[in-house]
Specification:
Blueprint: E1 14-24, E2 55-56, H1 58-72, E3 81-85, E4 92-95, H2 103-108, E5 113-115, E6 123-125, E7 133-135, E8 138-139, H3 147-151, E9 159-166, E10 173-180, E11 186-195, H4 203-215, E12 230-241, H5 242-247, E13 252-258, H6 260-268, H7 272-275
Antiparallel strand pairs: 1-11, 1-12, 2-8, 3-4, 5-6, 7-11, 9-10, 12-13
Helix pairs in contact: 1-4, 4-6
């Protein structure tokens, strides 16, 4: 539980930087929409960068972690959700509150203004809360797609998974294809947690909890049908205090070549805050 209050003063203490690898345990599909369909291509292509390589948008990774934490903390009841969009058929609901100790709003930010709750009276957010967490686009490590894998792929980098939706009355099949990054691919991830007060140091443990939840859930589309299982590896955790930026001071390496279990043990240790010296 966060110890933030309405009187907590914000000033940069430092930045926690978590970097490492995201391994695809099964095929991964993060869609690019259907604007780039080609004749003979998959119905649902994956998002690619300017060089034609798949990548994981930071927004996709950040949004999935947020959703999993909201569920874990019991913040997905109608009274805890607000509408970002009320357009019929395209409703978007997220958690938002005006509680100063709300760790979801501290990690991911809080916008001012009036927002309609899914259930109950509208909420009037009087002040913005800066997001502590930034997650960057994760590029593909092209070397992780081995020559042996390329021999069996439908494209140089990706595979096409064929699926069928079956009508329950007529038994008619409705085939569809899904482009995926294959199992075995690796992406380079980087996350930065801004520590703006002493109370923020505890947010590192909440972030790692979200990453562990993701390992036993799914990223991207088709998760209930086998896609999107991922694993984090070779993690490095670095602390850069304010002096690093103002006077070129040294950074502190807190973990290297670690898995999530080791990083979580570090973040949950009672002495973790002491390691983040200003």
């Amino acid at each position: 539980m966060s110890t933030h209050t309405a009187q907590t003063q914000l000033q940069l203490v430092g930045k926690l930087i978590l970097s490492g690898e995201l391994h695809c345990e099964t095929g991964l599909h993060i869609g690019a929409g259907k604007g780039s369909l080609e004749i003979g291509g998959a119905d649902n292509p994956v998002v690619k960068d300017a060089f034609g390589l798949p990548y994981i948008p930071g927004s996709s990774l950040r949004g999935r972690i947020r959703s999993l934490l909201e569920n874990a903390l019991g913040l997905t009841t109608p009274a805890e959700l607000v509408y970002l969009s009320k357009r019929k058929g395209q409703e978007v609901r997220i958690h938002q509150s005006d509680r100063p100790d709300d760790e979801i709003c501290l990690l991911f930010g809080r916008n001012p203004g009036r927002m309609d709750r899914v259930s109950g009276e509208a909420i009037d957010m009087r002040a913005a809360t800066p997001a502590r967490l930034a997650i960057y686009d994760a590029p593909l490590d092209a070397e992780s797609i081995t020559p042996q894998m390329r021999e069996n792929l439908d494209d140089e980098i990706t595979e096409v998974k064929s699926e069928n939706a079956i009508d329950r009355i007529t038994s008619q099949a409705n085939p569809r294809t899904l482009e995926r990054v294959p199992a075995g691919a690796r992406f380079q991830v980087r996350m930065v947690l801004d520590v703006l007060c002493e109370e923020d140091k505890a947010l590192a443990a909440r972030l790692v909890e979200g990453l562990r939840l993701l390992e036993d859930d799914a990223l991207g589309g088709g998760g209930s049908r086998g896609s999107g299982r991922v694993r984090f590896a070779n993690l490095k955790l670095v602390w850069r205090n304010r002096g690093f930026y103002s006077s070129g001071g040294a950074e502190t390496e807190l973990a290297s070549a670690a898995d999530l279990t080791a990083v979580q043990a570090l973040a949950n240790d009672a002495s973790f805050g002491e390691k983040l010296a200003s």
